[in-house]
Automatic annotation (TrEMBL):
GO terms for biological process: RNA catabolic process. Gene3D superfamilies: Ribonuclease T2-like. Keywords: Disulfide bond, Endonuclease, Glycoprotein, Hydrolase, Lyase, Nuclease, Signal. Transmembrane segments: none annotated. The keyword Chloroplast does not apply. Belongs to the RNase T2 family. It comes from Prunus webbii. Self-incompatibility (SI) is the inherited ability of a flowering plant to prevent self-fertilization by discriminating between self and non-self pollen during pollination. In many species, self-incompatibility is controlled by the single, multiallelic locus S. This is S-RNase. One of its GO terms (cellular component) is extracellular region. The active site is at H62, E115, H119. Residues 1-27 form the signal peptide.
Length: 231
């Protein structure tokens, strides 16, 4: 009798211990943000070499970020396997060179390493390193944001402006889920002139397993009621 109850105690204690580890450990996220950037906007005010040249005129991957509903900036820098270049096949590597270049410094592998170590490790239980990069590349191919916007006549223009909802609607029409737009402040705002902001990133949201797309919540991103330029 005594033995049985002490065994039960040990089992219970172990269960609590596991719960404790799981609740305080890493990889606590609810959904993914798949973030694509518009390189010319990335390069504005960048201190890196890209600001000196006209950069790539297509949306490219910034990252796939496991995120928390209550704080979209977390988790990050979780415990997990460090980036290992060996785990990227030459084939995957050449795909990522197109979809996920380091537009600021040209150090592609350094960029991938940084994104995996900061974000990817936090969802390693769902996507291992190879799956993390494969899945991101697939998403980039599957939803060509450059093409979607072009088809809706949203193309780079020096003076034209759009409303937040114009751009969201164009993307939603094809992806069938609500994206989140991130903007940069206008670097050349003139006092007294109408304010505007620059389209910088388009975020698509995916559920926990990164298989299905879901609506993004407008938690952050472009400012409300300020027109958007795309250039
Ligand atoms: C999300 O963040 C909140 C607040 O920091 C935390 O209490 C919660 O456990 C997190 N959710 C997940 C699934 O990690
Ligand atoms: C990672 O693990 C180390 C040691 O196991 C611990 O000290 C650290 O707090 C952990 N970091 C995170 C973000 O959980
Ligand atoms: C995405 O669309 C743009 C504009 O139509 C096109 O130039 C580009 O090749 C497309 N990218 C892929 C991977 O299909
Ligand atoms: C282009 O736009 C038309 C209507 O505006 C829409 O029916 C079509 O699905 C779009 N195609 C792509 C590839 O964006
Ligand atoms: C958006 O917010 C609702 C309500 O708080 C929540 O149920 C939903 O999961 C959130 N979705 C995302 C992608 O953050």
């Amino acid at each position: 009798m005594l033995k049985l109850s002490s065994l039960a105690f040990v089992v219970l204690a172990f269960a609590f211990f596991l719960c404790f580890i799981m609740s305080t450990g890493d990889g606590s996220y609810n959904y993914f943000q798949f973030v694509q950037q518009w390189p010319p906007a990335t390069c504005i005010r960048s201190t890196k070499p890209c600001s000196k040249q006209r950069s790539l005129p297509i949306f490219t991957i910034h990252g796939l970020w496991p995120s928390n509903y209550s704080n979209p900036k977390t988790p990050s820098n979780c415990n997990g396997s460090q980036f290992d270049a060996i785990k990227l096949s030459p084939r995957l590597r050449s795909k990522l060179k197109r979809s996920w270049p380091d537009v600021e410094s040209g150090n592609d592998e350094g960029f991938w390493e940084g994104e995996w170590n900061k974000h990817g490790k936090c969802s390693e239980q769902t996507l291992n390193q190879m799956q993390y990069f494969e899945r991101s590349h697939e998403m980039w191919i599957f939803h060509n944001i450059t093409k979607i916007l072009k088809n809706a006549s949203i193309v780079p223009h020096p003076t034209k402006t759009w409303k937040y909802t114009d751009i969201v609607s164009a993307i939603k029409a094809l992806t069938r889920t609500t994206p989140l737009l991130r903007c940069k402040r206008n670097p050349a705002q003139v006092k007294g002139q109408p304010q505007f902001q620059l389209l910088h990133e388009v975020v698509l949201c995916l559920e926990y397993k990164a298989l299905k797309q879901i609506d993004c919540n407008r938690t952050a991103g472009c400012r409300n009621n300020v027109d958007i330029k795309f250039q």
